[in-house]
Structure to design on (550 residues):
């Protein structure tokens, strides 16, 4: 009861704004930063419960609004293995966040603990971090106020200002009982990632200068990286110190203390939705050489988009689909060279937004493809069904998961040739380079660089595999998006009745047509996607679908 009094007293400083209904959506809570203190306070309570549920394992809390405007902020919980919060708990988060008074909050918290049979006096551990938004320090204070109400049996670890994927890494590493995953610190992440990258780029065996197929290419060409004026700029600068000139970076959009610049006219989301270079990147002139490639992070560095100028002129996007194809084919080749195709199956997980050409291309290479609903948790879950699961959303969020059995197989296989030996070592190093918890712009970028270096490819050669179908994505504000229900991984509508038939009809009229409508999980709108063999066809298909969705 003392605990309840302390929670109620602390909660008084974080009153819930009266006019809002909060919802824990696809990416946690997200809205204007100044509306969030009460929400963050309630998330602190839930994080403790969640940790107690797992006998005191560490739970993560990340304060960020990713690619959203600077005035927004958000919060999401990270489960012990470094994954997104289990879906069944999202409703609990929503319940606590909408309590109108401290008394109501304490009551809801008490009931929840009872319902879940959780001993509220048990030990707990919470790891937290924030991105660079101006509202983040205030929100972290609200979180700390909630955690402080518990006293000593709740261990807290503030890792400071860092990227979303690094927080996920630290949570996973904190809970790793084998001690093999890596040190549970930001520095531990940097060291682990740098070591794996070096293994993949430079030889560690005496007598050879590298481990690539085509001989030593020396240091890689400088890589311009648009950091969206976000926290990725910090992690990148930090990482660069660990690898010397092995891969020289040209960081762009790295202003962390200037108001109004976060995600503004830059970053992965800007590039993907506008299908053009950020003006700052264009002006830098760094992409003018046809051999050059550039990369953009989003505001919390969990999304990555590549691009280049074909012939030094025309913009070409290398999005999540292109990255998935690059990674899956490379890893597939390594598995073949490791002579493990009978034991290790590589598969790709996409969403309905994946360009039809990418899906077709992957299947043509005999790699299985699964389609899931939008949102990282769905892709992540499906990727676990493969021995090596490559998952990417077209928007650049994704990673590659290696199952425990796969790692064990790799470690116990006795190689019979130097090439097989090399392939096995490379697969193990890739599993260490690639963030196993969540999509990670920095580590995904290093993955891309490794593949390009090993293949000896420029961006244009990477791009040459398949040609994206022309496509459009628009949002439509409808009176009530909740009447839109989908099935088949969001590719078909079941309601409003009749609408799907009309979409099907429109799509049939155009070559290679495909279109779907789904309610957004993050905004009050529905999204309409369409693709077709030609640009003019896609316009007519999308227009019809859009009109019909009203
Ligand atoms: C969230 C998801 C992202 C998804 C997007 C779709 C996470 C961490 N993020 O940002 O994966 O692409 O929502 O938004 O799951 P929408 O539902 O508004 O289209
Ligand atoms: Zn993000």
């Amino acid at each position: 009861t003392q605990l309840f009094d302390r929670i109620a007293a602390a909660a008084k400083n974080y009153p819930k704004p009266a006019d809002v209904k909060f919802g824990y959506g696809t990416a946690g809570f997200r809205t204007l930063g100044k509306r969030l203190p009460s929400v963050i306070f309630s998330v602190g309570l839930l994080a403790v419960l969640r940790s107690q549920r797992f006998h005191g394992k560490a739970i993560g809390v990340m304060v960020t609004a990713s690619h959203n405007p600077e005035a927004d902020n958000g919060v999401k919980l990270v489960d012990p293995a470094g994954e997104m919060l289990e879906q069944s708990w999202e409703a609990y988060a929503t319940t606590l966040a909408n309590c109108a008074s401290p008394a109501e909050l304490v009551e809801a918290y008490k009931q929840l603990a009872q319902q879940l049979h959780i001993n509220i006096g048990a030990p707990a551990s919470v790891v937290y971090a924030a991105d660079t938004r101006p509202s983040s320090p205030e929100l972290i204070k609200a979180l700390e106020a909630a955690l402080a109400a518990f006293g000593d049996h709740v261990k807290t670890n503030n890792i400071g200002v860092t990227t979303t994927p690094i927080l996920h890494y630290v949570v996973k590493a904190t809970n790793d009982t084998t001690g093999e995953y890596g040190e549970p610190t930001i520095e531990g992440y940097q060291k682990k990632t740098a070591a794996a990258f070096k293994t993949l780029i430079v030889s560690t065996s005496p007598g050879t200068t590298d481990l690539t197929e085509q001989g030593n290419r020396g240091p890689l060409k400088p890589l311009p990286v648009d950091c969206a004026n976000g926290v990725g700029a910090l992690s990148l600068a930090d990482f660069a110190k660990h690898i010397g000139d092995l891969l020289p970076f040209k960081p762009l959009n790295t202003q962390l203390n200037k108001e109004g610049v976060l995600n503004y006219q830059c970053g992965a989301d800007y590039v993907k939705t506008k299908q053009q270079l950020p003006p700052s990147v264009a002006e830098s002139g760094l992409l003018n050489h046809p051999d050059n490639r550039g990369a953009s992070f989003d505001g919390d560095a969990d999304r990555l988009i590549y691009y280049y100028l074909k012939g030094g002129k025309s913009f070409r996007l290398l999005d999540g689909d292109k990255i998935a194809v690059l990674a899956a084919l490379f890893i597939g080749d390594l598995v073949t060279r490791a002579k493990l195709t009978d034991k290790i199956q590589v598969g790709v997980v996409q969403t309905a937004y994946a360009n039809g050409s990418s899906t077709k291309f992957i299947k043509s290479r005999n790699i299985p493809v699964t389609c899931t609903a939008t949102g990282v948790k769905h892709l992540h879950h499906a990727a676990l069904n493969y021995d090596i699961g490559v998952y990417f959303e077209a928007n650049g969020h994704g990673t590659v998961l290696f199952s425990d059995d796969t790692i064990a197989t790799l470690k116990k296989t006795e190689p019979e040739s130097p090439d097989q030996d090399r392939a096995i070592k490379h697969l193990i190093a890739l599993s260490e380079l690639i963030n196993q918890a969540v999509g990670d712009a920095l580590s995904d970028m290093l993955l891309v660089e490794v593949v390009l270096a090993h293949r000896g490819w420029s961006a244009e050669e990477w791009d040459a595999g398949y040609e994206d179908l022309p496509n459009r994505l628009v949002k439509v504000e409808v009176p009530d998006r909740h009447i839109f229900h989908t099935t088949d991984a969001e590719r078909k509508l079941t309601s409003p009745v009749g609408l799907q038939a009309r979409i099907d009809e429109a799509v049939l009229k155009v070559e290679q047509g495909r279109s779907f409508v789904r309610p957004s999980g993050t905004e009050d709108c529905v999204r309409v996607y369409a693709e077709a063999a030609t640009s003019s066809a896609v316009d007519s298909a999308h227009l019809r679908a859009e009109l019909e969705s009203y």
The chain has four domains: 2-161, 190-317, 320-463, 471-548. The chain is about 40% helix and 20% strand. The pocket of 16G (ligand 1) is lined by residues 26-27, 374-376, 393, 395, 397, 520-523, 527 (CB under 6 Å).
